[in-house]
Design a protein that fits this description.
The complex is a heterodimer of chains A (575) and B (131). Chain A has 575 residues and is of the alpha+beta class. Chain A is built from 20 helices and 23 strands. In chain A, a hairpin with a 5-residue loop joins strand 18 and strand 19. In chain A, helix 9 runs antiparallel to helix 20. The radius of gyration of chain A is 36 Å and the shape is elongated. The relative contact order of chain B is 0.05. The chains are: A alpha+beta (575), B mainly alpha (131). Chains A and B meet through strand 3 and helix 9 of A and helix 2 and helix 3 of B.
């Protein structure tokens, strides 16, 4: 049997080469994946394995200057139902009844809501009280899922609601301090990174990396709740008594610019707020910083301060009032058409004589007068920490509709529009030594670790000298204590002030309706409080002195006593 | 060559393996392998238990925080000026009138018990007064 000799052939190399090429390709790919693009693939692998979620920080609280809570966040639950679990009627019925019993919803409504939604999870109740939600979740109600949330509560009710403001559904501030300090109050959100399964759900006890959220700081307002209560009560009573449609009261520490109370009426109510009602939406605007008005005779304080500071008049400077002043041929009358004869500048303020204010403005000249208006902060925002502040309107010679009579009218508070906060800020400068201070509503912030940051007083200008300011205090003191009865004179304290009564401007003319106000301070020698009371369109047509003066006097006695300021008016003991 | 005829000196053995026999070694090996296999399981179990305990404690801590915040809100509500005024009115108190200011030499009342960080800065002392 002969063996057949196998023929030598090169075909065996074909698979060898194929395998070698394949191996080289695989090797090249491995080099690409594991070495050249290692970082990219490692990142992709991590993103597949891990998921992350944002942990929102707790919103900071808002407190009054003495640490009493005005707004804070408390914990709640948003309750969802997994719709698939409620496919079974019996399950849906028992679960919906359990939820309805705890939340007050209608069980049938809940079943309909879930079964007709077409979603995987349906929100069935928002902001459920923590204990109620916890009890439901602990009871393992079928399909029920709870997500923690917070809700803003106001333990002091609607007190200072126009200052505190509101937040929206996403815990974002919409108005007031809530809006202005939203970035601070929100805090810094945290992040949780966790291992997840194929469905994206966290793997129980898997690796978790957490960056804790940093809660927002608590904000300490300059508002004193006790004084705020007094201001709101006084404003309500004054509006009712004088049949006004609205009004505002601002109390400020004239030495620091701190707002101690800021009341507006009507005001928003946290508990009944309905943003679908346009009337209520209007209340979101804080009228003290947003609404313009002509201040009327209160402006004479600024005119007098300017003229005295410029060295053009003194309180004793006299002029002859004939009851009428002609400015470029246009007659200007006194508010009551009165004729006062020879008057000092002090008398001009006491009697609120328009022609006297025009006399001082003419001494100054339009340019100088406007320089002082600018220095007192008119025509620009005060930069108080509230959103929606208006700049005010000051007609100037460069304006197209300027009339030379405008400057004369501005000297007694017409042809100029200001916000109440501008007026308070300017008057504070007139009596506090001449310093124009940025008004503010926040005194300090307290970080979550307890560190307190006090906000500094910000002096932004010196419109008049300290000597002029001292003179103004005495002049305004003589307005409230002229030697005869004055409704704005407090019982226990010396005080200074000036009233204003101005018609409401409509187009190029004036309406019959009026805005009355009284701005004053006490005590005269060392002012601790500056108060502006403003009543809009009071139907009884009482003047600023008669309508707002008594409110000022009562508030001074009440709040200075509360602040522990010793009375500086001698009291005669009643027998 | 004398030295070569002498017996080798005995060396001291510090550790001598027990005589287990083949089956003994197999059993010992199996035990070691089993113990090695069980160790991660036990460790995992312990970690899981501790993780669970930690989770429970965190839950309790959170519940206490929530309760504390609710109590803060409740206290704030109870000491609100409106509520105090309403309660005072209910028990027949009326706002004071004709206040009389008296300067006294005694120390003032204790400051309110509010956390220090929430208190205002110390202000200049004023004479005590009584309404």
């Amino acid at each position: 049997m002969a063996h057949q000799q196998a023929r030598r052939t090169g075909r065996v190399w074909l698979p060898a080469i194929a395998f070698t090429v394949f191996a080289v390709i695989v090797l090249a790919r491995l080099v690409q994946v594991q070495i050249l693009e290692h970082d990219r693939y490692a990142e992709e692998a991590r993103s597949e394995l891990y998921a992350s979620d944002t942990v929102f920080a707790r919103r900071g609280a808002i407190l009054d200057r003495n640490g009493f809570l005005l707004a804070m966040s408390t914990d709640t639950w948003d309750l969802y139902v997994a719709t698939r679990v409620w496919n079974d009627d019996a399950t849906a019925r028992s679960a919906s009844e359990a939820i309805a019993k705890a939340t007050g919803h209608d069980a049938t409504y809940l079943r309909t809501l879930v079964q007709e939604s077409g979603l995987v999870d349906v929100l069935v109740a928002r902001d459920v009280p923590y204990d109620t939600g916890k009890a439901l979740l602990d009871a393992d109600v079928a399909g029920l899922v709870g997500l923690p949330n917070t809700v803003r509560v106001h333990p002091a009710g609607d007190l200072a609601s126009s200052v505190v403001g509101i937040i929206g559904g996403e815990n974002t501030g919409l108005t007031g301090i809530e809006a202005w300090y939203d970035d601070e109050l929100l805090g810094t959100p945290g992040r949780v990174i966790f291992e997840r399964d194929t469905t994206g759900s966290p793997i129980p006890y898997g690796e978790t990396f957490t960056t804790e959220p940093v809660p927002g700081p608590d904000i300490i307002l300059t508002i004193d709740r006790r004084m705020q209560v007094a201001a709101e009560r006084a404003l309500r009573q004054a509006i009712k008594e004088h049949q006004a449609i609205s009004g505002s009261i601002v109390m400020m520490d004239p030495q620091t610019g701190e707002i101690l109370a800021l009341a507006t009426q009507p005001r928003l109510s946290f508990s009944t707020l309905d943003l679908s009602d346009p009337e209520q939406v209007r209340l979101l605007r804080n009228s003290v910083v947003s609404d313009l008005y002509e201040p009327g005779s209160v402006m004479k304080v600024v005119t007098a301060a300017a003229a005295i500071d410029a060295g053009l008049v003194t309180p004793e400077t006299t002029y002859e009032d004939t009851g009428i002043a002609f400015v470029y041929g246009v007659p200007i009358f006194n508010w009551n058409n009165g004729v006062y004869g020879e008057q000092t500048m002090e008398g001009v303020l006491q009697q609120s004589i328009n022609t006297g204010a025009v006399f001082m403005m003419e001494k100054l000249g339009v340019a100088k007068f406007h320089e002082y208006l600018d220095a007192f902060g008119f025509g620009k925002p005060t930069y108080i920490d509230l959103s929606g502040e208006a700049a005010g309107l000051v007609r100037r010679p460069t304006d197209a509709d300027w009339s030379p009579v405008d400057a004369a009218a501005q000297s007694f508070g017409q042809a100029i529009s200001v916000t109440p906060i501008q007026m308070v800020s300017a008057l504070a400068a007139a009596i506090n030594g001449g310093r124009l201070i940025e008004p503010r509503l926040v005194k300090a912030m307290i970080a979550h670790d307890g560190t307190r940051y006090d906000l500094p007083t910000n002096v932004v200008g010196q419109p008049i000298s300290a000597e002029t300011s001292a003179t103004m205090r005495q002049m305004l003191g003589s307005v409230v204590d002229p030697g005869w009865y004055h409704p704005g004179k407090p019982r226990y304290y010396t005080a200074g002030g000036k009233s204003g009564t101005a018609n409401v401007p409509i187009d190029a003319s004036y309406d019959d309706t009026q805005i009355v106000s009284f701005a004053g301070f006490a005590p005269v020698d060392n002012p601790r409080i500056l108060i502006l009371i403003k009543l809009d369109e009071n139907a009884d047509l009482a003047t600023g002195t008669m309508a707002a003066g008594p409110v000022f006097a009562a508030l001074v006695d009440e709040v200075l006593g509360y602040l522990g300021v010793q009375p500086d008016v001698e009291q005669v003991a009643a027998r | 060559m004398t030295a070569l005829d002498q017996p080798a000196p005995r060396t001291h053995r510090g550790l001598s393996l027990p005589k287990l026999g083949v089956s003994g070694w197999v059993v010992a090996g199996a035990l070691i392998v089993s113990a090695s296999a069980m160790a991660p399981v036990v460790q995992n179990s312990l970690m899981t238990t501790q993780g669970r305990n930690l989770e429970v404690l965190e839950g309790e801590q959170n519940a206490l925080r929530v309760e504390m915040r609710q109590l803060e809100a409740e206290i704030a509500r109870l000491i609100s000026v409106d509520r105090i005024a309403r309660r005072a009115s209910e028990i027949g108190l009326v706002p004071g009138a004709n206040a009389i200011f008296v300067t006294i030499g005694a120390a003032g009342p204790e400051p309110p018990k509010i956390p220090a960080e929430h208190l205002p800065e110390a202000s200049e002392p004023v004479s005590g007064l009584a309404p």
